[in-house]
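User: For my dataset I need records formatted as: sequence, then structure tokens, nothing else. Please produce one.
Assistant:
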Amino acid sequence: MKQGNFTTWFKSGTPWIWMNGGAVAIAVIMTLGLLAMIAVRGLSHFWPSDVMEAEYTIPGQPSITLIGEVTTREQVPTERLQGAGLPVDPEQSEFMDRELLKVGNRDLNGADFRWIVADWLENERFPEEIVVVERREWGNFYGYIQQVKQNGEVIAEGNEAWTALQPAVDRALEIYSDIHALETGAIGKINAELERIRLRERGLELDNALTPEAEAELAAERKIQNDLYAELEAQLVGLYQEFNRDSVRFRSMDGREVEVNLSKIVRVFQPNAMGTGAKIGHYFSKLWEFVSDEPREANTEGGVFPAIFGTVMMVLLMSIIVTPFGVLAAVYLREYATQGVVTRTIRIAVNNLAGVPSIVYGVFGLGFFIYLLGGNIDQLFFPEALPAPTLGTGGLLWASLTLALLTVPVVIVATEEGLTRIPRSLREGSLALGATKSETLWKVILPMSSPAMMTGLILAVARAAGEVAPLMLVGVVKLAPSLPVNGNYPYLHLDQKFMHLGFHIYDVGFQSPNVEAARPLVYATALLLVGVIAALNFAAVSIRNHLREKYKALEN
């Protein structure tokens, strides 16, 4: 290329276009690569891997039998293994292969993961008779079925045990569902009603209005609830007796036998005997459990539905709160405020608020919303519940308000920019036709700037849904006893603590006592959080595009 042509090409701006395009392409590739890595590592956790049985012989020690799933394979320097006390010779080999084996049986071995040197494995095999038992406590169990018992009596053993076990497990799971529905449904409503009666009685005491007639009325209501509770309790006792009736006896890899009550079993399967179709069915069953069930085993097993529900609920409440406040502030700054030094200072302050660390908002929410506002509300409106706080503690309402405060600058800036783009001729035309300034604002300006408002809301949702630090101070918990929305009056419990996907990732990844078991759930939950944010944003983007098409003709 000649010097003149190169200079013309450079001045035309083409190099900058290519550089920007390349930067965008790299960013897209990195983002897709990151999502692909998270998806592979997270979603592969639910696939029923084959279970290996082999002899493991450490030089100079007797051979032992190991049963488990190979979860990780890697090469490590031989010197590192030697430093760990293993009898290896760095001069023979610079690197050696090692595998992370999920051996389960934590109640017997103390840990359900074990690193092994692959070269010391012998006679690797995959017997179809090996069973994997997912338990409500102590994680997975790997071994062989010995006997199935009913009321302490053996009803099947040997080859017939597997056939008898599946119906017994299905029966136990049905009873568990009935117990859970009874405890969280009918009994939960009775407990909530008894608490309301107690609070009414306490309120009358504080007002010196607890007359004998009122006491008798409250006692009659309490008796009705207690009678209902006694009936349900008898039903619950019968269900628990049926629930704890059956058990199964297993043999572990070291020959020890363990008897497990079927009430402790979530799922039992033989992965080595499963075909591709059965494994696919099992995979989607586990995936559905992950998004629809409650967590268990310190959040390292089970599902994350309460966290999904809490995240979506908080974002929706935050959106309902932040949108009107942000829009009203932007309308005032653009349409009514005198454009002077004070207004420019306010705009600078709003822009700077967007850069304040989120933990600062959390501290503000804790001090202002919870301690000051919530504490005073408890004193004024809920004195009968004191000293137990109602709104004077972290909850869904204060978390939503804190995040609304955090994201309101984004909505203000986006809305004000949308108001700025409305042609002046439309304002003048509306006023010329006899409309007042407020009518022009509500019927012309705001509808046409609604796409910009939705843009601000999209940005607010994207930031709020992933925030964790402020929520740790204003209402999020590791495990919530119930959902913020249930069948108990007043149905929507804004004072209740809740779970959040972002905090769930932090808790599982950094606070879990079982790091190896928690790692794949961190990836799966992160992918789910990205999916939830994408779904919320997609809904908002669809609404914005509809509004943009609706008012495009007027803008032109």
